[in-house]
Amino acid sequence: MNLIKPPLPKVKFSVDEFPLKRELISEMLRVMKENNGIGLAAPQVGIDQPFFVGQVGKDPFVVAEPFLELLNPLLVYGVEGCLSLPGLKVNVPRYTTIRLYGRDENGVEIDWICKGLLARVIQHECDHLQGRLISHYAEGGGNAFSRLGDL
Ligand SMILES: [Zn+2]
Known about the structure:
7 strands, binds zinc ion, 21% helix, alpha+beta
């Protein structure tokens, strides 16, 4: 499994089946860590499924079919990179606190309150599932919730 160059595939509305394949998840985590990333969405490795992996704290996580709820309108800028756009750094506005609904790799429902770096990573990866890269923000685009209804 390798990172692919943009344009990344458009993802389906829902995943084909749960549980997600264990080998697929571990491969994505391997690629993410090898490239010093803290999040990786399926389309970045050429998979048209709506899920991503990440690791901010001690344990890696898998989120499929995410839906975000805004809990606090406060936006904070932070510099982000992306494994799909090597070398690019963009100052991206993200919400500081979000509620994430989705499913884990087994299809079990997730309902998390996310803050700080975790909230930023989740918004970055949700952007990927909508076909949006950080280059969008370099061009003065909107934020992760401007197309919330598409998820
Ligand atoms: Zn990215």
